[in-house]
Amino acid sequence: MKKITSLILVLLMVLAFAGCGQETATEKVLVKENIYVFSDGETVSTWKFPNDGKLIFQLANGTQLLATRTFGPKDNFNENGINFSDLGQETQDNISLFYEQLGEAYNLQEYLEKAYKEFKSLKSEFQCYYIEQETYCSAINENEVTCITTFSIPLGNRAYESSTITHTFDVHTGEHIQQINAEN
Description:
This protein is 26% helix and 40% strand.
């Protein structure tokens, strides 16, 4: 498990450095202006790249503080051959609703504040923070389906930490059974 976590961490770090500031052929679209105001009055607006779902949290001057991307269980196919779409519709709907209501596995406000603090101290040397959260079905038996959420969060100064949270659900109804663990 440590080897997989390390591999995911390396991959996410590579994505982190490619996740911000790289304009693509697709134009970003303003989602909401002034969604967050820092104590000094500086504001952040949210932008989205429609093709990849990446959200960009950007200062009024154009500086990108934080980029996030979330993949839910319906967006992923596990290398073990477990496909979310193979589950019954009720199960899919209930698991999707669970993760939709759960939201991010991290505190967005906390990472906006960290990114802004680092931006103010580093100015032109600042690298946009990147958080990716991915949930996929990892195991299934006649009673339960297990879904794993991995996410990479910035620690500052280009360092990242990867964490995993595992949930089990009833395979027939999608009812949440338990959170198995949360590890760093």
